[in-house]
Amino acid sequence: MRLQHPAEWVLEARADLNLRPDQITQLENLVLAQRDSQSVRMTRMMSSMSRPRVSALTTAMTDWASPINEQAIRDAACEQSRSMSESMLNLIRDQHAVGAILTEAQRVQLPAIQSKMMMSGMPKP
Q1: What angle do CA 51, 59, 47 make, to 5 degrees?
Q2: Measured distance CA(31)–CA(9) in Å, rounded
């Protein structure tokens, strides 16, 4: 998904946004940092999914006969939620780093460009 990599996504839209050369350079530098950030986010997410508590949640959801440990399920769901929240916050931080490079006029264009890119990626009927 392109939006998981905000700097790359904005660079794809460079013509629509009329990016200046200095903005392109800054965004290209940010691409590397955000690629690392995305990698760390995914590693943390996968690590959290393999923790015993979350594994217990997966087991509970696929077991149709064992006793239900509601507290364990709640604890596992909360841990999973914390991990996902942290990942979303880091993605938002990456988006804000990109936004700081853009002008206000460029930032206003992003939703329309996003819609246009999403529509162009959809299969034709």
Answers
A1: 20
A2: 9
